Request: fold
Amino acid sequence: MTKPVEPRFQAAAEQLRQAGLRTTRQRLVLAEILFGQDRHCHVTAESLYNEAAERGSRLSLATVYNCLHQFTAAGLLRMVTVDAGRAYFDTNLAPHHHFYYERSGELQDIPEEQVAVARLPEAPAGAKIARVDVIVRLEQ
Reply:
């Protein structure tokens, strides 16, 4: 028998089910933070971990990383890697690009129509271009 889901987690539970993910307590807590109130956000694992802790949820950082990667694999998030040591997870799945403020680490959306890529190289044999991500790095 499936355990009932708290009312505040109903929308998150439905989103997880539609993505083919089980509704564990940890996933529900993180999904509610990420997808609640139709918000679009960019989070790192650390910032999401801190937000969950501020809301009283006790999760390990490893659990947060695992859930973020599971959400990404299920198509609920998009990973944006800004450098070798920093990845963000984006709830906005529509095609778009990003401004990255190097000093503050803030990521901001750029609408797709504001960026024009004049020419792309041909993909290697047996491969196809899945998408083009443009990150415009800003100094303040």
